[in-house]
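[Automated response] Your request has been received and processed.

Submitted sequence:
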Amino acid sequence: MTTAVDASFIDKALTELESARRWTPRTISKLEALISSADPWAVYRVDPVNFAAEKGIAEQEAIDLFLHAANLGLFHMEWRLLCPLCTDTVSSCHTMSTVKSRCYCHLCLKSVSVNLDDFIAVSFNLSPRVRELAWHKPENLSVEDLMLRYRIDRRAIKPGFGPFSEMMRQFARLADYIQPGQSRDVTLNVPEGWVVVVMDAGASKTVIVPSAAASPARKVSATLTDHGWQDVPATAGTGEITLVVRNDSSRRAPVIAGARPGDVDSIGIVMGPFLNGNRLLSNQTFRTLFRAETLAAGEGVGVRDLTLLFTDLKGSTELYERVGDLSAFSLVQQHFEHLRVAVSQQEGAVVKTIGDAVMASFVKPEQAVRAALAMFHEIEEFNRKRGTRDLILKVGAHRGQSIAVTLNERLDYFGQTVNIASRVQSVANADELCLTEDMYSDPQVQAALKGHEAMREMAQLKGIAATVPVRRIRVKV
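Generated structure:
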């Protein structure tokens, strides 16, 4: 089912999108072609990273493209918590406020916990306002489409088997709706070491029956109730057996059943590149357009690897005394804009300003280093044009684990990585960049600092018991 395209709305939104920023040639036309695609699944859970690779667009530009398109109503953003074992969509959220880091996967029968940079995927769905498509009403999809296209991530690969959705399709012998009070029989060939799998795809409830050559069970029954699966034997026989699936629940149930190797679960999922939550939170366009997107109060989501950068102005108190409050305030605000440019050009985001300081986040440590060097250059140029060095910068950065939280109605970060990054900045002198050894040891960071001497010292950071190895880089301005 596909309804007519709302051409007038699309034209208006694309016109606004084109003027949102400077795009490389044909970028908007490539998005327009996608929106007009006859394949409804082509505009479902579009990943900007994959779109960039397919269309020859820079990844950062593609991410910005879909963020602006979502802001204009062409697409809806979707945050999905994927099971790391099977990539089933354990939780689907249309706003960050309902994102949680821990859920239960009823397909794998396990509790799962993920980080923003692992299995929290962000994608974009074509809005029903643009065009209504079958997957806007998943209850009307076929069972195969519901489970193998709507639920399982298309980029999931099981090594030795290929795409996980194709593996499920290969082993499934039943994929259909069963009405309340009805049953279905299906014949399965179950080699030794295989398991019988029966799942209620609508409610994500699964039962797994291991096979055993000594088991006399030539018939396996599974009865679905409103409370889950019941009357399931402990083991099934090998060879040809009959599976009887009965629906005693109060609803029509989408059921998938079949037999597969029992060791599949021990083979991890490999995911292709995708836009994860960590990368989006370190995107300046996201933080600008979607300021209202925050995590629920008291909810924290882990980040496995994040780089945080802090800046400060040397002698800002003297600056206020020397030029007056209004002039100093204006200078500080102008300096913020220069810093934002340097951060966004390196695919980072300004998390917040603190007085006359900036806190910024990056996915990769070398991005933070390049941004810092650009900051020094930008501020020196600003000073040169004014004919005075009123603004003197000092910068510090550190990488590590963190927790994304909401503080003061703003997406922020919490943890020791934040504390260390802030303290490292405090030991920097004028025109200096200070990095922890954890950052400097990265080969890409050293490549970004080529030509700059990095003096090593042990620093005593305020509030940190042990001394921390720090690299002090004097930036030539």
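Summary generated for your ticket: The chain has three domains: 7-153, 162-267, 294-474. The two ends are 62 Å apart (CA to CA).
If you did not submit this request, please reply to this message.
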